Amino acid sequence: MAYMDHAATTPMLSEAIEAYVAAARDVGNASSLHAPGRRARRTVEESRERIAAALGARPSEVIFTGSGTESDNLAVKGIHWARRDRAAGRNRVIASAVEHHAVLDSVRWLEEHEGADVTWLEVDAQGRVPVEALRSALDGAGDQVTVVTAMWANNEVGTLQPVAALAALAAEAGVPYHTDAVQAVGQVPVDFAASGAAALSISGHKLGGPTGVGALLLGRDVPCTPLLHGGGQERDVRSGTLDVPAIAAFAIAVEAAVKTQEETAGRLSALRDDLVSRVRQAVPDVVYNGDPADRLPGNAHLSFPGCEGDALLLLLDAQDIACSTGSACSAGVAQPSHVLLAMGADDDRARSSLRFTLGHTSTGADVDALVAALPGAVERARRAAQRS
Amino acid sequence: MSGGVDSAVAAARAADAGHDVTGVHLALARNPQTYRSGARGCCTLEDARDARRAADVIGIPFYVWDLADRFHEDVVDDFVAEYAAGRTPNPCLRCNEKIKFAAVLDRAVALGFDAVVTGHHARLGADGLLRRSVDLAKDQSYVLAVLRRDQLDRSIFPLGDSTKAQVRAEAAERGLAVAEKPDSHDICFIADGDTRRFLAERLGEAPGDIVDARTGAVLGAHSGAYAYTVGQRRGLALREPAPDGRPRYVLSITPVSNTVTVGSAEMLDVSEVAADRPVWTGGPEPDGPIECEVQLRAHGEVVPATVEVAGGRMLASLRRPARGVAAGQALVAYRPDPAGDVVLGSATIGTRD
Ligand SMILES: Cc1ncc(COP(=O)(O)O)c(C=O)c1O
Fold first, then answer.
1. Whose CB has fewer CB within 10 Å in chain B, the N or C terminal residue?
2. In Å, how far is B196's CA from the nearest CA of chain A?
3. Are residues A266 and A136 in the same domain?
């Protein structure tokens, strides 16, 4: 099996599994006052400190959540609500057009159900938000904006955003800047303080930790209205009994991913470049989407003219190669990716794309398997597309 | 895999037989919410989920293929156009002809698959002949008879030797949760089952006369001839009863004059049926009259007949008159056979002239 879908989820690191199992054998609610509770709390707080240290944040800035999706929802809705309610006439969200659905649909929801005004930041052909686009969106209107959100690295095409420049512009205008760094941690250097962001989302299962745990790094002075009300466990911004084993494993994984980031990036980008050049040889008219250099090291996003991504995926799956069309499904029917469309691709190119994402278990043998299977699959997929 | 019990068991049997099987669910609705909801349908999100779940239990890959546009053009638009032309189409038959054993099959073959397996109740054995299912009540050979030889050659119907009850029992044994799912009946793309309203929304009101076949007298009015089918008795709202007090039936629909013609039950009787675009799969096209049986609508009665080809049409002389023969339906010729009646050929019944 050649697993080339690490952006969907990546195998847990063995040290994370061990941390998980060790904590899962213990009893204790981190909010309890007795000894088992204290033990659990200690695990949680050590994990918080680990994550903070690895990502350039203060421990008090780490808010544990149940997923990257929850972190994104909390940041976008929470900051919007809190700042909208603090100043009359402040009701605008600025968001990039290439966000993950966790951000995209949160913004759309605010627009449709909460009457928010939205400015979508268009991207260039590589999928990058031009810094000028944010400058003009904020120009003279900063006091009407509740939050700016633009991701660190795009989950489909892998393009990195100019986070520091965007954050600086937002800061100048006095607007909190949120960035979804779910795909970035462990792949590229991520430092919360240095980035200038007010809020940053991460997720466990994209970096070798468990699924169902995430965190929002949230500056101490950034107002944020909770999504979940209850025990107030996380700074009163997020309620719910903390998942101690998941948090322990998450922290170990973040620490390991960050520690090995440089080496991982070097290894994966070499492997990825090899993949792209060999696919180019096999299928000369392939289109390499996104920024060829300034992108996630493990990401190769390719369009195969005349093919449907769906058909290619089926054919590669039948040969034990796991990849993704990278786009969201609606009732199982692939929709053309909003990211590709925002980059100016037409429907056909958007539908003809596949995403291959490499990770810590990827090897040259995976690339060999792909390169062996691809030409036949492309030929068949082209034939199928001509018939329909 | 529709999400129903038949296609789930068919897929499981094909996999057991050693085929390399991939489950495919067809997304046929442009907007899945607009089609029939609940357990009755075949195109809802819930059905897609049921199909996926069955594929997972069987242990085969599963994909959704979006054929909504093709389905709309070839089946739904055709359905409306046929009614507008005064005929009574069978959309399941059209879906088999244009979608399942055409668009889907073509795509599958291009992708490297050898055949399409479906959960239709019909037999297709090594001799290549299409036969009725052992379960005559569930037999679907009528809606498959439209398939050409090249289509049948790439089709597998694993359920033809089983009754529906056996299929359900097997589904339960295999742990397929769809075992108890009720059969889908009506037309999948008409959400509330109200065909008349569905057509009215698409064809608009077109008031016209209901006339007496014998006298030509205007007996009533209709707001759209497409709302009537040959043999229909209810809902005519005629101004006065027939002089003999006996019920009257729709005999024919004439789009040109936008009239619905009614008459007595006897006048519904038809002894000669002409049908267009014949397809012969039970052997070569006959070069003279043959004695066989014909079926003139889905689940309709079977009538002995003499069938021949003339001027490219299939002509059937019925040994006893049939009623409710509607243009647009299929005329299917069968050869009685103890091993399952064999489909000889099929053609589309033309307008009565
Ligand atoms: C950029 C990005 N944001 C958010 C998420 C959602 O994270 P989670 O799966 O933890 O909810 C993902 C995962 O697909 C992602 O790639």
1. C
2. 29
3. no
Go through the domains of chain B in sequence order and give each one's CATH number. Answer: 5-119+158-180 (3.40.50.620), 205-267 (2.30.30.280), 268-349 (2.40.30.10)
Inter-chain CB proximity A317 and B103 less than 8 Å: no
* Mean pLDDT taken over chain A: 96
Number of domains in chain A: 2
Do residues A274 and A359 share a domain? yes
All residues of chain A having their beta carbon less than 8 Å from the beta carbon of residue B111 are 311, 314-315, 380-381, 383-384
- Chain centre distance of CA B139: 11
Residue with tokens 């999504």, as numbered in its chain: A227
Looking at the structure, tell me whether residues A92 and A36 fall in a common domain. Answer: yes
Q: Which residue has the tokens 């479906």?
A: B118
Per-residue pLDDT tens digits for A28-51: 999 999 999 999 999 999 999 999
A311, A318, A333 ranked by CB distance to B64: nearest? A333
Entry pTM:
0.89
Residues A219 and A266 in one domain: no
Pair A188, A290 in one domain: no
Residue with tokens 């393009």: A159
B316, B325 contact by CB (below 8 A): no
User: Would you say B9 and B55 are in contact if contact means Cβ atoms under 8 Å apart?
Assistant: no
- Which atom of ligand 1 is nearest to A154's Cα? 1
- The answer to whether A224 is a known catalytic residue is no
Is residue B31 a contact partner of residue B127, using CB atoms and an 8 Å limit? Answer: no
Are B130 and B141 in contact, with CB atoms under 8 Å apart?
Answer: yes
Using CB atoms, pick whichever of B22, B27, B110 lies closest to residue A383. B110
- Identify the domain containing residue A115 by its residue range: 14-259
pLDDT digits (tens, 9 = 90+) for A236-285: 999 999 999 999 999 999 999 999 999 999 999 999 999 999 999 999 99
Task: Render pLDDT for A216-243 as a digit per residue (tens, 0 to 9).
Answer: 999 999 999 999 999 999 999 999 999 9
Q: Which residues contact A171 (CB under 8 A, 6 or more apart)?
A: A177, A196
- Calculate Rg over the CA atoms of chain B: 21
Catalytic residue among B43, B92, B188, B292: B188
Q: Chain A contacts of B22, Cβ < 8 Å?
A: 314, 318
Residues A240 and A290 reside in one and the same domain: no
Structure tokens at B195: 């065909």
How much is the ipTM here?
A: 0.85
Whether the CB of A299 sits within 6 Å of ligand 1: no
Domain of A144, CATH number, reads 3.40.640.10
Q: Do A293 and A308 belong together in one domain? A: yes
Distance CA B353, CA B348 (A): 15
CATH number, domain with residue A382: 3.90.1150.10
Phi, psi of A205 (to 5 degrees): -80, 0
Tell me which residue of B260, B235, B274, B252 sits closest to B326, measured CA to CA.
B252
If asked whether residues A255 and A267 sit together in one domain, one would say no
Task: Decide if A380 and B110 are in contact by the 8 Å CB cutoff.
Answer: yes
Q: Does the CB atom of residue A69 touch ligand 1 within 6 A?
A: yes
Q: What is the pLDDT of residue B179?
A: 78
Answer yes or no: do A332 and B22 touch at CB < 8 A. Answer: no
